TrEMBL record:
<keyword id="KW-0028">Amino-acid biosynthesis</keyword>
<protein>
    <recommendedName>
        <fullName>ATP phosphoribosyltransferase</fullName>
        <ecNumber>2.4.2.17</ecNumber>
    </recommendedName>
</protein>
<dbReference type="Pfam" id="PF08029">
    <property type="entry name" value="HisG_C"/>
</dbReference>
<keyword id="KW-0963">Cytoplasm</keyword>
<dbReference type="InterPro" id="IPR013820">
    <property type="entry name" value="ATP_PRibTrfase_cat"/>
</dbReference>
<comment type="function">
    <text>Catalyzes the condensation of ATP and 5-phosphoribose 1-diphosphate to form N'-(5'-phosphoribosyl)-ATP (PR-ATP). Has a crucial role in the pathway because the rate of histidine biosynthesis seems to be controlled primarily by regulation of HisG enzymatic activity.</text>
</comment>
<keyword id="KW-0547">Nucleotide-binding</keyword>
<dbReference type="InterPro" id="IPR013115">
    <property type="entry name" value="HisG_C"/>
</dbReference>
<dbReference type="GO" id="GO:0003879">
    <property type="term" value="F:ATP phosphoribosyltransferase activity"/>
</dbReference>
<comment type="pathway">
    <text>Amino-acid biosynthesis; L-histidine biosynthesis; L-histidine from 5-phospho-alpha-D-ribose 1-diphosphate: step 1/9.</text>
</comment>
<dbReference type="InterPro" id="IPR015867">
    <property type="entry name" value="N-reg_PII/ATP_PRibTrfase_C"/>
</dbReference>
<feature type="domain" description="Histidine biosynthesis HisG C-terminal">
    <location>
        <begin position="209"/>
        <end position="280"/>
    </location>
</feature>
<feature type="domain" description="ATP phosphoribosyltransferase catalytic">
    <location>
        <begin position="49"/>
        <end position="203"/>
    </location>
</feature>
<dbReference type="InterPro" id="IPR001348">
    <property type="entry name" value="ATP_PRibTrfase_HisG"/>
</dbReference>
<dbReference type="InterPro" id="IPR011322">
    <property type="entry name" value="N-reg_PII-like_a/b"/>
</dbReference>
<dbReference type="InterPro" id="IPR020621">
    <property type="entry name" value="ATP-PRT_HisG_long"/>
</dbReference>
<dbReference type="GO" id="GO:0000105">
    <property type="term" value="P:L-histidine biosynthetic process"/>
</dbReference>
Length: 283
């Protein structure tokens, strides 16, 4: 049985449980529990603070973990990054007061920067040849310039609304992050096999996102035109209809291409077009 560590509360907790649920794995809410048993897959769920997950996985306390890439990069524990999970997107950025005359990274030389991610920032400044004072604080990093603790900050940015409300402006994007699945490097063969089974389920869900299943009827004489328009995992599926001279075409189309392709298909005579959501897609 695998043990997976997820965030005990917050947005990543909810999105992790939702993803596992889509994979047929039912997980109880933490509600002060440390460990719970999942249904639908041989899995235990360990509820931890997000910044404790990389260490727990590295030590083998948990076999797997769902955590932000920013925490993996900051903690630096040896773990295997198995796959990106497509949620929890954010970035780690440098920001300064909006009244600052910022002209580039040289601004930070000899300045104090407040952050909860000192290791990532130290590596970045070292790569850029910037010597600055990194002041580590927990909690509300964004207030540091306003109270005179720092000249700038290095923190998580999602929409940028928190920066604006605190009179700050983003000046350098350093690291783009999202939730990732990580694994203990020392997993035995049985647990690696179970991990492959789990990632198979997760990939089928992620591959289906942003995709639509499209069915339509079309005159057979325009089939070649339709095949040139339509994508497919190999090629569109074509089925005969009872009505002579007509066929049915089934294809998977990405959401961002959907309406342009539909318009072109209507121009060549497609009708009875159905557009369905995809839950899973197994390649």
């Amino acid at each position: 049985m695998l043990r997976i560590a997820i965030q005990a509360k917050g947005r990543l907790n909810e999105q992790s449980i939702d993803l596992l649920s889509e994979a047929g794995i039912r997980v109880a809410e933490s509600k002060r529990k440390l460990i719970s048993r999942a249904e639908g897959f041989p899995l235990e769920v360990l509820y931890l603070r997000d910044d404790d997950i990389p260490q727990a996985v590295s030590m083998g306390v948990a076999d797997l973990g769902i955590v932000g890439l920013n925490e993996v990069a900051e903690k630096g524990f040896p773990v295997e990054q198995i796959m990106d999970l497509g949620f929890g997107g954010c970035r780690l950025s440098l920001a300064v007061p909006k009244t600052t005359a910022y002209e580039g990274l040289a601004f930070f030389r000899g300045r104090r920067v407040a952050t909860s991610y000192p290791n990532i920032l130290a590596r970045y400044f070292a790569e850029k040849g910037i010597e600055a004072e990194i002041h580590t604080i927990e909690g509300s990093v964004e207030i540091a310039p306003a109270v005179g603790m720092a000249d700038g900050i290095f923190d998580i940015v999602s929409s940028g609304g928190t920066l604006i409300s605190n009179g700050l402006v983003e000046v350098e994007k350093v690291l783009f992050s999202e939730a990732v699945l990580i694994a203990c490097p020392g997993l035995d063969s049985d647990k690696r096999r179970e991990t492959e089974q789990l990632t198979f389920r997760l990939n089928s869900i992620l591959d289906s996102r942003g995709m639509k299943y499209v069915l339509m009827n079309l005159p057979k004489e325009r089939l070649g035109d339709a095949i040139r328009i339509l994508p497919g995992m190999r090629s569109p599926t074509v089925l005969p209809l009872a009505q002579e001279g007509w066929c049915s075409i089934h294809a998977v189309i990405s959401q961002d291409q959907l309406w342009e392709r539909i318009e072109r298909l209507k121009e060549i005579g497609a009708e009875g077009i159905l557009i369905l959501a995809l839950e899973n897609m197994i390649r």
